[in-house]
Write the structure tokens for this entry.
Amino acid sequence: MRARAAGIAAVLVLFFWSAGAAASGSLAGVTLGQSVLSVTASLGPPDLVQSTDDGQEWRWFDARGIDIDLLADDALFVHQVLIARPQSQGRPAPLVQPKEWALLASARGHAERTLAAAGAKREPEPERAISAWRLGSQLLVLEFSAEAVAKILLLDDASARRFGYLGAHALSAYRAPRLVRQAAVEYPKGAIRDRAQGVVVVRVVVSSAGAVKDARIILSSGNADIDAAETQSMRQSTFRPAHCDGMLCEGVFLDREDYSLDG
């Protein structure tokens, strides 16, 4: 009887915990609509930043035991959160679960029963490798490998429709700016003297003619000389402009650079 009561209590804890996650729209501590810059306050600087046709991608590898891949808009608000178990030399790392949905590496049946018990509504999906679930105004997508959860994707309703999880895939009419030639800059002497290192991210506004309209730091390295050097590099670099519906248009390019004295 005591064991059964404990089991019921565990189910109730999972239900209310998952219901809270659904209401907040969060995964691995990242909330949809949150500024990606506030994520860096908890996870540190990203390992990768790139401007894609689908949005601004920010990635952290093995962030507290979980790979985290975010897709944000040009204003840096998060619209998608994708998580997976890190790989180390071809082998899975120790399993760390997101507190909202502890489903990584779970068997398909268990994962789907958990979502159904939490009140999620299953959406039709043409591919067996994917299972999509409605959670209020968000969609939670499970990606399977060998009938176990390999990745979990949380996305808002607009992104779900855009990427075909709720019907036909809408082809993107936007092509992001591309860096054609990056202007080289020397490692700042002041930073060398101070043994300063760090990751810096610069937001570059590229005009429809490919000119740099604005370049400013959105994530500082912690050293003013390094920040100034990378901003100068972007201002002197060459870009291909963005395309909107086949026409040249203004766009945003994000530049991430890791200044390290070790290499």
The chain has six helices and 20 strands.
